[in-house]
Design a protein that fits this description.
Order of helices and strands of chain B: HHEEEEEEEEEEEH
CATH class of the largest domain in chain B: Mainly Beta
CATH superfamily of the domain at 66-301 in chain A: Cupredoxins -  blue copper proteins
Largest interface: A-B, 46 and 46 residues
Number of helices of chain A: 12
Distance between the termini of chain B: 95 Å
Helix content of chain B: 10-25%
Structural class of chain B: alpha+beta
CATH architecture of the largest domain in chain B: Sandwich
Number of strands of chain B: 11
CATH superfamily of the largest domain in chain B: Cupredoxins -  blue copper proteins
Strand order of the largest sheet of chain B: 1-2-8-7-10-11-5
Oligomer: heterodimer
Radius of gyration of chain B: 28 Å
CATH topology of the domain at 66-301 in chain A: Immunoglobulin-like
Structural class of chain A: alpha+beta
CATH architecture of the domain at 66-301 in chain A: Sandwich
Largest sheet of chain B: 7 strands, mixed
CATH topology of the largest domain in chain B: Immunoglobulin-like
Shape of chain A: elongated
Shape of chain B: elongated
Chain lengths: 552, 223
């Protein structure tokens, strides 16, 4: 072929490509008269809807007495195990074997003895804590072990202090779910002012940890002249233990937390409420409040003023940090990734927990359930990275103490948003008298962190630390809010929190607010585009072959 | 030893005095517990249905603790041995020693349920110390899982196997014996020399056709 003809053919190629450019297929298209219809949700898209309340132990809800310990009623879906409460009040050394067997506690988890001030309660207390990992890695398959879901389908890697337990770390032989003692948040711990308290940290975890008694009156060294402040330079290494000793003179709502690689370890869950109760006669305290929440055996001083008491622990998680322990097994890799590769200054908070759960799981054990005309004591701790702006719908609360120091009565503020800086605690008095100020009347009133991220789970609302202050008449027999059956049926869905389902996907508006469908492809355009590209390629090959043949 | 005898005696006493209590325990049958630890489903005299007589009596001492993980890279807790071999119908007298100052367990899974409720033999020490208990294995050729079930203890290395009659294969992720199902990723140690080898090979690969062509041309010219 002559050179001129080849040149002509070569000029056709850009023309073809130019035409193809105008007809190029696109990922999105512009709808003109008829936008696509609403996509129907098929049955196989929805993997499962969980029962809002599994109602595993209805017998635990009623007011009862175990080992002579009066335990208040708890109307919640997941009430605390009353046997554990009895053990936490009497000590695991002072209860019958049959009672202990109803708990997951070790026999030496809590030893109480010696009424030193002869006022009818034990004053020498020995608490043993372990460190557990939840939703951890398994080298034996593609699954997580000792699982603890914070919300439907959400299982971020977590750590917690737990009272020393015994036996299986899972619920039963066929389960990977953590036993109920192993959960977030770390348990609230209560001791009496003036008690001689030893806390032994038995580090069952694979990284070093400590116990720092934040705000609690404690000497800098223990009686052996060893560290008593739980600071970074005195880590308790895996497989070892250390005992911290206190005899607190000041009562109030304090904290305990790990002080090794502090930023990361607190954000992994190693922190909880530590409450020093006022010394009163016959003051048998509920040493552990597993999972925080309602205190079913409040102290003498609290019972004198209040009808109920709740511990509210706010935590936040960074999914990147939490994911580290789920992606590697070698402790050296985890340590490197957590302490050096991960950068806390470039981190986000993705999950927000109230007492270890995000909405809707907060409805199972994070609700405040009240009658009218009650005075409820709330002890609130912020273990998040960011501030909490606690807001209770329909109520204004009085702040009675900051960081474990009582606010004089005349100076107590009554507010509807309470700001709590990281690590701060406030004691609140929540009154349910319908007077237009403290309460606007019975209802299912939400309470939540009003920082906008606080009510989301990885950006999905409703989630985060949203919970409900519920008046008894509006709660059903399983402790769930009445009149919300439809909503509950939809929100207890892992698919919703996996962002697979539209927010409004049922009822009258599912057509108007569901997912828009897709547009059909414009086939004539795709066919012509394909032909043009094919032709251009063929010409290119032809020209190349023709020129190569011409060479001598 | 004295302590142990006292402890065992106390356990026996506890069992004798608390029949109602033990009966209440549901799935916690055959359990002995005190302030230092517990034994579940020990069996020193009941022969499995498929055994006519004991084939042998083996004494095994098992240590548990973080220092035993030093023998393996990338672990934190371990037993001092990772495999025990016994004959079918053997009686095994286990001495379990905890070298750490935290809780450790020795659990054996997959045993016949009529002798070992839930198929499990379980020793647990609440801290440093020692426990003794026996079990009798059936005649079946089988590999039994031996592990500590505290969260992340098996995962971080406290995993072993008991092979009866040679066993029926290895379990995964036993330190020093078998690979994990889901393995960790580590960086490859790329040295200057590694890069150099790669570079030289690329160049050699580039030259290869030219060498071949030259070789063929030379051959053609030869006749």
């Amino acid at each position: 072929m002559a050179n001129k003809q080849l040149l002509l053919l070569a000029l056709i190629i850009p023309v073809l490509l130019g035409l193809a450019w105008f007809l190029k297929p696109t990922a999105t298209g512009t709808a003109t008269l008829n936008p696509p219809g609403t996509r129907a949700i098929t049955q196989d898209e929805v993997t499962s809807i969980e029962k809002p309340c599994s109602d595993e132990h209805p017998e635990w809800r009623s007011a009862q007495s175990i080992e002579g310990v009066p335990i208040a009623a708890s109307l919640a879906c997941e009430p605390d195990n009353p046997f554990e409460i009895a053990a936490a009040v009497k000590g695991t050394n002072n209860i019958a074997m049959a009672t202990l067997m109803q708990t997951d506690l070790a026999q030496d988890a809590l030893e109480m003895s010696d009424d030193l001030d002869n006022d009818g309660d034990p004053d020498i207390i020995h608490i043993k804590l372990e460190v557990v990992e939840l939703n951890g890695f398994s080298p034996d398959g593609d699954y997580l072990i000792n699982t603890f879901a914070i919300a439907p389908g959400i299982q971020p890697g977590l750590w917690a202090y737990a009272p020393k337990s015994r036996g299986m770390g899972v619920k039963n032989f066929n389960s990977r779910i953590a036993n109920p003692l192993l959960r977030a948040p770390s348990p609230s711990i209560r001791v009496e002012q003036g008690d001689r308290v030893s806390i032994t940290l038995e580090n069952t975890h694979y990284l070093p940890h400590t116990l720092h008694l934040h705000g609690v009156d404690h000497p800098w060294q223990n009686s052996h002249g060893e560290d008593n402040d739980g600071a970074e330079e005195h880590p308790v290494f895996p497989g070892t233990q250390h005992t911290y000793e206190i005899q607190p003179r000041h009562a109030g709502t304090m904290l305990y937390h790990c002080h090794v690689q502090t930023a990361q370890h607190i954000m992994m869950g190693l922190g909880g409420l530590f409450i020093v109760e006022e010394n009163r006669p016959n003051n048998w305290l509920q040493t552990f409040n597993i999972g925080a929440g309602q205190v079913r055996h409040p102290s003498v001083a609290v019972s004198q003023t209040y009808n109920q008491e709740y511990d509210l622990v706010y935590q936040s998680l960074d999914k990147k940090l939490s994911g580290i322990i789920q992606q590697a097994n070698d402790p050296r890799l985890i340590s490197q990734q957590m302490s050096r590769d991960y950068n806390m200054t470039e981190s986000f908070e993705n999950y927000f927990l109230l007492n270890g759960h995000s909405f809707p799981y907060t409805l199972r054990d994070g609700m405040i359930i009240t009658a009218e005309n009650e005075n409820i004591k709330l002890r609130v701790a912020n273990l998040q990275r960011s501030a909490v702006a606690l807001h209770v719908h329909g109520h204004k609360v009085a702040i009675t103490a900051y960081d474990g120091v009582d606010q004089p009565e005349g100076q107590q503020l009554t507010r509807d948003v309470v700001d709590i800086a990281p690590a701060q605690r406030v004691d609140l008095s929540l009154r349910t008298q319908d007077d237009g100020l403290h309460s606007y009347g019975p209802g299912l009133w939400m309470f939540h962190d009003h920082v906008p991220t606080g009510t989301t789970s990885d950006g999905m609302e409703p989630g985060g630390n949203m919970a409900i202050l519920a008046y008894q008449s509006l709660v059903d027999g399983q402790g769930m809010p009445k009149m919300h059956e439809d909503m509950l049926g939809e929100l207890f869905s892992p698919d919703y929190y996996a962002k697979k389902l539209p927010v409004w996907r049922s009822g009258d508006f599912k057509q108007l607010l569901g997912d828009a469908g897709k547009m059909p492809p414009t086939y004539w355009q795709i066919i012509i585009f394909g032909l043009l590209i094919g032709l251009a390629l063929a010409l290119l090959m032809f020209i190349m072959m023709a020129t190569s043949r011409k060479r001598p | 030893m004295k302590k142990l005898i006292i402890m065992l005696a106390l356990m026996a006493l506890a069992v004798a005095h608390l029949p109602a209590t033990w009966a209440d325990m549901g799935h916690h049958h055959h359990m002995l517990m005190d302030g230092r630890g517990m034994v579940m489903n020990a069996n020193s005299d009941k022969l499995p249905q498929d055994c006519q007589a004991l084939s042998e009596t083996v004494d095994i001492t098992i240590h548990a603790g973080h220092q035993h993980a030093l023998a393996f890279n990338g672990k934190m807790f371990a037993f001092d041995k990772q495999q025990w071999d016994v004959k079918p119908c053997a009686k095994i007298n286990i001495t379990f020693i905890n070298d750490d100052h935290i809780r450790h367990q020795l659990m054996i899974h997959g045993l016949p349920g009529y002798l070992y409720p839930e198929g499990m033999f379980h020793l647990e020490l609440y801290g440093a110390g020692e426990l003794k208990a026996s079990l009798i294995v059936p005649s079946q050729k089988k590999t039994y899982l031996v592990h500590c079930e505290l969260p992340q203890h098996m995962e971080k290395g406290m995993k072993a196997q008991l092979k009866v009659g040679g066993g029926d294969g290895d379990l995964p992720s036993i330190p020093g014996i078998s690979a994990p199902v889901k393995a960790d990723h580590y960086a490859i140690d790329w040295q200057q020399s590694t890069w150099l080898i790669l570079l030289v090979c690329i160049m050699a690969g580039l030259l290869l056709p030219f060498i071949a062509i030259t070789f063929i041309k030379l051959k053609r010219k030869q006749p």
